[in-house]
């Protein structure tokens, strides 16, 4: 569905179901340079099981208008505005990679507004490889090729997409090139690189938190994810074997199973 | 930044993908070879799991008409080799074309189609699709401007074979892709003759690639199979032409394929709607057979192309041959374009005219011993046919002429036998043309 945030038209997938304000809201926040489509194997399930879902395209990404936001702090404020604009007082957040930084920052700023936080491939900081950052800021498609290489684990490089007929790396690559690389990936990578408040923000968080990490994640290694999780009181960690950073696609069923258990327990669905 | 500092992506390359893409042994009992999942259906964990699969909430298999794990490996493998986002395998190349058209079009729509196609494809576009209310305008493949002129308000796409069957005329893919995209419609290309080893149509602006996998991709001539592959770049939401892709679809609780699946929307719709409703599914055994062929695709294509170039030289010098059409011939009208579009080889399909017309062509075909006379191309064995009385025999004289066919034409699919043996066999055929009253050996 489309709606306006700060006078800018924004697109969010509702998981293939009519948006219903009477159901608890889950917001899914994508990673650097990507779009709402990375969440298709999680969002549709929640949308048909008692939740209202918004898999947002961040400004300047996917089907949303405007320009990419330049800092994680701005993105966190923007996500909070989304909750207001769609008429809710609270929501659960699910983030992937850069989306985790946004989630952590948003929760630390609005602890009463966010009810649960689920992080996939999340760390307290995501310092960028300088060459990768430079390629992205120079609109070089090699940046996407490198990201797809590093974002998929050894198993994911062979394929084996949960949806028959889809090929991981090419699909991800196409998503990351749906808009100008420098305007999406370049801006996002710089925002990640600049963000230094992740660990401090994490210390303030008291809400139920789940971290899903993957053993072959080169972009947010397990030890970095655990370092972050250790700072969040009572946070739960689930580690997926033989999987890379794109766990939400590489091991979509496993991710959905863990996410479902965590969210339904801590933020129950509507009963009707 | 110096080039030295730029790391290189370590994603797998063509030859490695030919052997491995789409398959993870550790998820299949460690089986090194892709297992043949000879089953119609798949157990659900519970009712919720079943509902989630039917509603496209989760990935997985329900019924082998819609998808099958062995077929899925083949689909991913071909998608990876083409550089596409997704693929859907079908029971034959013709069913892949039909499914592509039916996913794209509705009654009242129009397509612009190259005139130089396999005879069966011509009949589909000329005679069968009008029965579904889909009309076509045919344009000669080299008439690039003609494709633009033929586009109407209700045109939903342009279709052609990159190298036309059987006359070897090339479509100017990059220019025709631009024409299509300027009109907000996709370009669909049957690239069977090339395989992804010889040409990457997506790098030249093509949106949907179709293959008859029965041919070079499999190579062994044992199994029928087809596939459609999606590039993932085409923006279905750019105009209001593709409402079945962009508007809520009643068949899946109001799902919009373009919104939900973006770069894989076309394949998702072709499977969810087309496979569900028409059902031209590929058998797992045939998928496995095709996978065996794809494992050696690049080495076979190199040999096919080198043998073809040898045969071109031989035919050009032969006194029984009136003309030779192959993109490697310097005076072929598309010679330069072929260098650009087919950098790894110009393919192994040759059309040549035999002196003495139809009678000589018939005598040649009836007397060769090694080359097989049959209605197929892209086998590892050398194949010959007389199109005017075989693959294109259902065309009238005018249609034959428009499709670039003549009665002296022989279509040659060069195999990977020893080149001297092929030439020796052709000498037997050519000698027979001097005695056209010889009785058939068939």
N-C termini distance of chain A = 22 Å
CATH superfamily of chain A: Alpha/Beta hydrolase fold, catalytic domain
Beta percentage of chain A is 15-25%
Spell out the helices and strands of chain A N to C.
Answer: EEEHEHEHEHHHHHHEHEHH
Largest sheet of chain A: 8 strands, mixed
Query: How many strands in all of chain B?
Result: 12
Architecture overview:
The complex is a heterodimer of chains A (272) and B (442). Chain A is of the alpha/beta class. Chain A contains twelve helices and eight strands. Chain A has one domain: Alpha/Beta hydrolase fold, catalytic domain (Rossmann fold, 3-Layer(aba) Sandwich), CATH 3.40.50. In chain A, α5 crosses α7. Chain A is globular. The model of chain A has no long low-confidence stretch (mean pLDDT 95). Chain B is α/β, with parallel strands linked by helices and 442 residues long. In chain B, α5 links the parallel β2 and β3. In chain B, α6 packs parallel to α7. Chain B folds into two domains: 287 residues, Aspartate Aminotransferase, domain 2, CATH 3.40.640.10; 135 residues, Alpha-Beta Complex (Aspartate Aminotransferase, domain 1), CATH 3.90.1150. In chain B, the strands form two sheets. Chain B has a seven-stranded mixed β-sheet with strand order 1-7-6-5-4-2-3, sandwiched between helices. In chain B, strands 8-9-12-11-10 form a five-stranded mixed β-sheet. Chain B is built from 17 helices and twelve strands. Chains A and B meet through α1, α4, α5, α6 and α7 of A and α3, β1, α10 and α11 of B.
Task: List the main descriptive attributes of the protein structure presented here.
heterodimer, A: 272 residues, alpha/beta, Rossmann fold, eight-stranded mixed sheet, globular, B: 442 residues, Aspartate Aminotransferase, domain 2, Aspartate Aminotransferase, domain 1, 2 domains, seven-stranded mixed sheet, five-stranded mixed sheet, 17 helices
